[in-house]
User: Fold this.
Amino acid sequence: MSMVSSESPIANILMVNSTHTPTYYLLLKLIRQLGIQREVLLRVIHTIPFIIGLLLGYFTLVNVFGRTRSSLISFCIAVILPNYIFYATNLRMYSLLFMFSMAFIATVAWILQENSKNLSQWQITALGLSSLGLLLSDYSGIVYFLVGLIFLIVQAFRMRSYKPLIPILVSVLIFVIIIFSCFNFLETVHNILNWPVAASQNINNSSRGLVELAKLAYLSLRPGLDLIYSAGISLPLALGLPIVLLLLYAYSFVSIWKTHKSSLAVQLILISSVIWVFASVTGYSFTRIFLPSHFFMVFIIVYHVSSMSKTWKVASYLILGLMISLCLKEVIRPTLRLYNLIPYEQIATDTLNLAKSQKANTILLSNNSLNSLSIERYLSQQIEQSKIEAAQVVKLGSNTLKKINNNELNSPVIFISHMKEGEKFQDVQIISKQLNKSFQEIQGYIKLQDLPYNPLWKKRITNSAQQPYAVQSYLLGN
Assistant:
């Protein structure tokens, strides 16, 4: 999606209807225009903001708690967290969002620690740039922005000085001017408010069985349970260890809160670590939004373990050791996510070969997954390189089938079906009937029953997929 979006003209990027700000896509477009096109290099570049964010987190914790050792241990653990590795190398805006979130939290903590009515020029600049960068990185940046803003307001009332709020207000003003003058903001707000959260989380609102309620509870608390990647480990560990870690974190949180009631900076870190709980009731409990919380959760556990009694200390270290060993296992032999396993380029190659052999003029792509964009992109590249003029690639939409029928295409049609994601599945049987064609399954890619996941994770995917493979190709003919 990011690569496709960054290839659009600047005007199109700015005015696109998306639940994300276009800032990242503009930045990616700039990087690619500088001559950096290889995906591997782009992924390496994406790690830079994430590393900066981690370093900012480390220095913030040292500044607030004064514990260099605990902060360093937390930093080392964070480096191997599976979600950190994934999103640091992911061609999406989350690396940028993580950096500005940590920069904003670091700046607010710095101001709270100084406890002064007047801000230095460095503090004003850091607060203004980090808050504006956070808001422009992604709309979800509002989460940590509001946390920091609340603490600055409390500080302002305590000190009876509202100077710390001036850079924030200026940043908000600039942000508002930008989004209303450049972005298609009103339609974007409409899309965000009407975004099918339940469908994207694969939640069945019509069912209220025990299993569905347990799944709902897990998805709601997922940001707090995702310190490890549970799909590739045994079921007992996958179910038990995240809960044990969450309970250990909760106990440590309460203990630190009790002993640091008077420190706003400490409370800022604590609230930043637990903010995902407040978002869980909205359904927007996506781990990628709350990555800064993971860093602070790890530190809170590490920090408090050192002050426990000997028995609890040993038990806690064993739990942390198990967590670290599982994270290292993912580093050495990663359990790839499903969409990392799908061979998009090979699918495009096979599809074009099929189109050539069957003299098919139309390649129809299901439009129920962002992953279809990857197939479409490789198809377009290969068509351009091989100069195939006959094959046209079209996405399945409300008018697509009518257009195909209206053009009276007697030649075969190739249909690429993606497993169900979200609320809709585009069934080949219905499509073939609407086109008055018979269908023949040609090939499947990534058999879902053979995924390298534990039974529970595999069942979640296979039960909702509505087809045995992640991607299947069909030949529709007369």
About this structure: The longest strand covers residues 438-447.
